[in-house]
Amino acid sequence: MKIRTLIFIICCTLIVSIKASNDKRYDAIHSGTPWFDQNNREVNAHGACIVKEGNKYYLFGEYKSDTANVFTGFSCYSSTDLMNWKFERIVLPVQTTGLMGPNRVGERVKVMKCPITGEFVMYMHSDNLLYKDPNIAYATCKTINGVYQFVGPLLFEGKPIHKWDMGTFQDTDGKGYLLIHHGFIYELSGDYKSVKRLVINQKQGGEAPAIFKSKGIYYWLSSNLSSWEKNDNMYLTATSLEGPWTFRANFAPEGSLTWNSQTTFVLPVANKKDTVWMFMGDRWSFPRQGSAATYVWQPVRIDTGKVFLPDYLENWTLDVSTATFQETRLDVKSVFGSITAQKSNWVAENHQLKSNEKDASLTFTFIGTKVGVKALTNNKGGYARITIFEGKKKIVLTAVVDLYSKNEAHSQVFVSPTLEKGSYMLKVEALGEHPAWTDKSKTIYGSTDNFVVLEDVYVFK
Fold first, then answer.
1. What is the pLDDT of residues 306-351, one digit of tens each?
2. Tens digit of each residue's pLDDT (9 = 90 or more) over 194-235
3. Domain tally for the chain?
4. C-alpha closest to that of 68 among 34, 102, 45
5. Domain check: are 407 and 421 in the same one?
6. Which residue range is the domain that position 259 belongs to?
7. Residue 39 lies in a domain
8. Per-residue pLDDT for 14 more than 90?
9. Cα separation values, 38 from 20, 51, 58, 327, 385, Å
10. How many Cα atoms occupy the beta-carbon half-sphere of 75 within 13 Å?
């Protein structure tokens, strides 16, 4: 009897373990939509990078808030497939004093593993709230997802580097490099904890630098200067980091504003035969940086020394075992006609429902496991809150979506993770707010109104 009971317990444990390991809440990368972790909270990791360690990918980014552009910590998430992300921890919390203390800015976090020491070194841009005290600083940790110990400024010739937008690049020979806006490349010391030399200052390029290398050619991606507004990002090429670097062109179609994103990192996903390069871009949203900013991840196409993001893939998969990707076609059914809430605050026209009134809301009921929302984004778009209820009262998850874009687009703005099959209610609420900000020159950016324009709500079959 005891043996049978033990066998039963072991079998149940194995079944539960297998079910847990196969619990995939996402089966595609959904660019431009909020992503949710294992706790149904938004993945909050901006200005990010990804480091592979063992069979896992670790995403590091700025853990933003909606209240102020102030450092609240750097986050770490892990994944085995680049689609389903587990929140690990805040790996660098706000320090009590100093460069990463209260009321400071912390941006562009990047992590590399030093091949000589085996230590993980984290780099960041530190600044005051007026962006008048820029420093490149660093922290270290023995484990990739542990709490990093802040050290201080990264030194070159005994002095701090007073720069802001930054990136990192690790070459195939293990050497590490620091990239700085407007064309600076620094080679790091063997332990990655100081700068060995200035490789080049070629006075080209812009903000948000990222470099990757394919078949002996280096590609340097960067953004133009337009505050948090999107722009057509550009790239240069060279056969050596020391140059000469040649300006090429935009790497996404002109006017697409790099598919409404800004470069942050390029991740190689490789096996013994092939490599897929994944472009990682940010869709910044101000002031709701924590809840409404999203990510644009796209496969990079490379052909005879040229790089392209020719088409915007809203939904796509990247097989990390075979280093292959493909666009995903969604099998969905529209429930847009099954509105149960009052429409008095909404205007129906051109197969759209739109409102710019604060607290105007619509609800949709559905039975299934997954739901998506399509909306119009343009220069009058505002913020909307999307909430999924189990039944009509229990909140399963909630997110804020940003419906502003400089160029008008008909976009997928929300895709839920896979839920347990059941009866749900989806609520869309206009917040009566919109993204807007100014830069140092007091130029005004962002939306001019608070419109929420819904075009479809669909349930996955």
1. 999 999 999 999 999 999 999 999 999 999 987 765 567 999 988 9
2. 999 999 998 877 899 999 999 999 999 999 989 889 999 999
3. 2
4. 102
5. yes
6. 26-327
7. yes
8. no
9. 11, 20, 15, 25, 20
10. 23
